[in-house]
Amino acid sequence: MRWSSGPTPTQRRREGRAHRAQAPRRTLAQLAPRPEDEAPLAGLDDDEEERLERLVPLRYHRLVASPVAFLRGSGARMSDDLARAASTGIDVQLCGDAHVENFSLITTATGRTILEIADFDETARGPFEWDVKRLAASLVVAADHLGHSVTVQDRAARAAAHEYQRVIAQLSRRPRMEAWHAALDADPLDRRLLTLFSESAQRRVDQVIGPVTRHTSERAYGSLLTYRRGEPRIRLRSPYVMALSDDEARVTLARVLSRYAASLSDDRRALLTQFTPVEVAREVVGIGSVGREDYVVLLVGRDAGDPLVLRVREVVASHVGRARGVEERHRAGERVVAGQRLLESTSDEFLGWYDAPAGGRDRSFYVRRLDPHRAAVDLARLDRRRLEAYGRACAGVLARAHVRSGSSDVIAGYLGEGERFATAIADFAQAYRVRNEVAWRRSRRAVRKGGLVGR
Asked: pLDDT at residue 44 above 70?
């Protein structure tokens, strides 16, 4: 029996060009209108009843802090906007929330310093351009917030779109295994990317680049852990990290470690058994996730100087899937884990998921290792040159992640080699900056009038 080799790269690129009939590249600049009588907080509080009520004011406080924070916390609203517009129909596994602050620098177990996507809560299948549009919009909003001119904003968005286009084209010509393992290695950039991060963040990353010492893990967890009589403990900081009652802590630990372990492979489960649970606390992180059942779990391995911290996060249906009207095949926790495993070029040994009742209803969770050698960008350091450099770096990460879905030739065919894609993305980003600014101001007034902030 002879097997067909399937479409050739040329045929796949031709397929990509054919998608231009459905969505010409210039249409990617278009921003569909929203209802004129829409309430200021529409699309932001649809699931408020599912959150911990006492934390809802904190969520709104963070949401309206700035246009950058508003864009980051209103991903569901942006997904709805994207769903209203023309679509290429070329689906990949999306990050789902490719905001510029959702990327981070990490050092791998082999000592490589790379840039990676940091948040996969909204990962889902969808048109590749959704991630690119969100990244470009966040770059422009951040640039405007930092006082950069419209010209600088436009250049940053164009540079990111060009880099995405370039990396897709480059990886589409590589063997599949090479493209699968591609990652953005920061070392050949003379470590210039590190200047975008705060000094404390740089130190966290640098700790594993130089000689490793016995106390590296202790120092790396920084403000998250404290030591009492030489024993690690979670540092409590209400309302961000809060203690649980003894009974609740015992039940939560047992539930996490038993149910979650079932989602791990045999070798990872064996590794988990080599750590002893010590403590669990409730955690409040991010903007969109504030009010969910999130926890941080402390375990120790060989001794007290060998801590392991797991982050347990509740997730719900992806706003990407909801905006597209697509029914998800997996529960939310499993969806996040499957998407992260596909998109990440690095591996989290403890990534898993479980479903369990909590707070009076069924909830879905995923668990991942909290990497102490991970650093988020310091937006205040993004001058004009750095803004472009970092935007290009993030776009390269997105392209490499999207390639793992296997559609690089089709995407490359659609994008082509000219300026049309970059121009459309930059125009969209500017239009979305204006919409985000208006929505932020209206929402800030509504939140203050409603007394939510500072309640």
From this structure: no
